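Duplicate of #3305? Posting structure anyway:
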């Protein structure tokens, strides 16, 4: 399974995957031209994309989904009851509702949907499995769940939010109400939350963790590195996804 982080952070988020028979995208916060430029720079043919998966409707995740879906005539999978009318102009080429807690099968891969804890309606995360390899995306959630932990333990690759440093958030420019939102159970995971989650996986299958959605105002890659260096988990490689910068990976 070939994959890349097209971009991660408040400026835009997107992940692209390619299997032997399929190609799919999770979220797209970029314009069509920028998404294509980034994808093709890593050798992905955007015309091979057959599915788009949407986690939630915040602009940095949905802004480019409508155009990508309609230009390439790609269906978009969303939580079953998600109403997208407030966030898009014309709608997707096709919207396919899916139920959190269920596993679905497409082409040569399967995916499991799970609820996340975020201040966006019907927000979800995804875990993809192809040829015995599993990759799970856990971002934009104020807390984790047993289901997230179970899927992460079964995953060789984990994309995990490490959004903010508590000290930088407290001392930063955000007003108190926004700080409280980020700190809440429907906000984001801190660097320490992310580390504790990885440590909780024990002797699972995870061997690579991509640390994602790093805040531009309330975090730095250096702070993330410092936290994970302070108590490293053996046999796991950490890749810090700097804000907006594409990162290539392959299993």
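Output from current build:
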């Amino acid at each position: 399974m070939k994959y890349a982080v097209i971009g991660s952070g408040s400026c835009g988020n997107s992940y692209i995957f390619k299997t032997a028979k399929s190609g799919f995208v999770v979220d797209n916060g970029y314009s069509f031209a920028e998404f294509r430029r980034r994808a093709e720079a890593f050798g992905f043919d955007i015309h091979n994309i057959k599915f788009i998966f949407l986690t939630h409707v915040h602009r940095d995740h949905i802004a480019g989904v409508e155009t990508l879906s309609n230009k390439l005539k790609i269906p978009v999978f969303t939580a079953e009851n998600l109403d997208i009318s407030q966030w898009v102009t014309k709608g997707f080429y096709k919207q396919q509702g899916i139920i959190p807690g269920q596993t679905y099968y497409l082409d040569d891969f399967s995916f499991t949907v799970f609820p996340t804890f975020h201040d966006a309606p019907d927000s979800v995360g995804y875990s993809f499995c192809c040829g015995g390899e599993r990759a799970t995306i856990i971002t934009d959630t104020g807390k984790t769940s047993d289901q997230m932990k179970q899927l992460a333990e079964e995953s060789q690759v984990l994309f995990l939010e490490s959004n903010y440093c508590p000290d930088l958030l407290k001392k930063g420019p955000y007003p108190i109400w926004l700080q409280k939102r980020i700190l809440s159970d429907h906000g984001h995971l801190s660097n320490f939350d992310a580390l504790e989650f990885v440590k909780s996986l024990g002797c699972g299958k995870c061997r690579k963790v991509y640390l994602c959605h790093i805040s531009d105002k309330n975090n730095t890659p250096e702070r993330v590195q410092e936290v994970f260096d302070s108590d490293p988990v053996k046999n796991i490689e950490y890749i810090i996804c700097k804000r907006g910068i594409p990162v290539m990976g392959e299993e």
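Confirmed duplicate; merging threads. The mean pLDDT is 94. The two ends are 5 Å apart (CA to CA).
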